[in-house]
């Protein structure tokens, strides 16, 4: 039996189990992740975040992101805000910026005033291998829905619609993924405009289902909103069930996009597997 020490954290209602493997690594598998994530029989979370030691001097730690089904993701913005706060509080109280590495990209985390964390989410990719279809619309229940695709370390399909609450998002997402527009499942956002540079969104994350918020989805929405508004804003605000995310981007595809916000501790504990 393994005993895992964990910290439960959340950002915008997106909740995570943070497992610190920097000093005392413990091996666990896909089935362990499923147990930990289960809200009825485990700790319960949207994703499990693991800090692992990096052999590279410039990298503070390797950032592993596991979905509830045990699959590994390449990006999680709200999770990055949580592990950023965790690391700065525990290991780097005099440090203002660190570099971390996921399965497919490097990121920078900075601590700002009022304990806000700024996450450099990297460069957006509008042409990426996971998006294999030439179509940009999806027929659902007799209606044509247009979408745009972007990758921010993980693939996103974003639909700008008139009323997001009229759509059964789970059924919509399941049917969309069956059409195989992408290689594997994709993160799906349905979005409506509230006012200038403010967007209302619901998100279905691959491997986790509908979640209260998603940082990388907020970034994807802000990136693609440029095509759906007359006036471009460098700061966009995405309102999700869990709260409002701030996204900053210059509009230049050769420059990174930034997610800014806070995160909180929920509780610590030990979990036996």
Summarize the structure.
It contains four helices and 18 strands. It has helices at residues 30-37, 77-90, 169-178, 215-225, and strands spanning 3-11, 14-21, 47-52, 61-67, 72-73, 97-101, 106-111, 117-120, 137-140, 143-151, 155-160, 187-195, 198-205, 209-211, 235-240, 243-248, 258-261, 264-272.
Describe the overall structure.
This protein is of the alpha+beta class. It is 16% helix and 41% strand. It has 4 helices and 18 strands. It has helices at residues 30-37, 77-90, 169-178, 215-225; strands at 3-11, 14-21, 47-52, 61-67, 72-73, 97-101, 106-111, 117-120, 137-140, 143-151, 155-160, 187-195, 198-205, 209-211, 235-240, 243-248, 258-261, 264-272. The protein has an 18-stranded mixed β-sheet that branches. The radius of gyration is 18 Å and the shape is globular. The mean pLDDT is 94.
SS-based class: alpha+beta
Mean pLDDT: 94
Q: What oligomerization state is this entry in?
A: single chain
- Proportion of residues in helical segments: 10-25%
Total beta strand runs: 18
The end-to-end span amounts to 6 Å
Percent of residues in beta strands? 35-45%
Which stretches of 5+ consecutive residues score pLDDT under 50? none
**Global outline:** globular
The helix tally amounts to 4
Describe the sheet with the most strands.
18 strands, mixed
Give the topology string: H per helix, E per strand.
EEHEEEHEEEEEEHEEEHEEEE
Radius of gyration: 18 Å
């Amino acid at each position: 039996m393994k005993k895992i020490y964990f910290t439960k954290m959340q950002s915008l209602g997106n909740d995570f189990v943070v497992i610190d493997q920097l000093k005392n690594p413990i091996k666990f598998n896909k089935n362990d992740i499923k147990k930990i994530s289960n809200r009825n029989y485990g700790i319960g979370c949207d994703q499990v975040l693991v800090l692992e030691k990096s052999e590279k001097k410039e990298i503070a730690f390797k950032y592993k992101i596991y979905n509830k089904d045990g699959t590994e993701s390449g990006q999680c913005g709200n999770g990055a805000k949580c592990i950023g706060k965790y690391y700065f509080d525990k290991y780097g109280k005099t440090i203002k910026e660190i570099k971390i590495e996921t399965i497919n990209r490097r990121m920078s985390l900075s601590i700002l005033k009022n304990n806000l964390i700024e996450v450099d989410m990297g460069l957006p990719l509008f042409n990426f291998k996971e998006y294999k279809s030439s179509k940009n619309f999806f027929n659902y229940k007799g209606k044509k829905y247009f979408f745009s695709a972007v990758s921010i370390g993980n693939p996103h399909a974003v639909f700008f619609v008139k009323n997001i609450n009229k759509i059964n998002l789970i059924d919509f997402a399941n049917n969309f993924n069956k059409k195989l527009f992408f290689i594997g499942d994709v993160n799906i956002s349905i979005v409506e405009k509230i006012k200038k540079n403010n967007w209302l969104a619901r998100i279905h994350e691959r491997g986790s289902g509908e979640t209260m918020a998603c940082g990388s989805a907020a970034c994807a929405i802000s990136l693609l909103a440029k095509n759906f508004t007359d006036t471009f804003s460098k700061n966009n605000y995405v309102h999700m069930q869990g709260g409002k995310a701030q996204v900053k981007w210059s509009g230049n595809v050769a420059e990174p996009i930034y997610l800014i916000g806070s995160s909180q501790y929920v509780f610590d504990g030990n979990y036996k597997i």
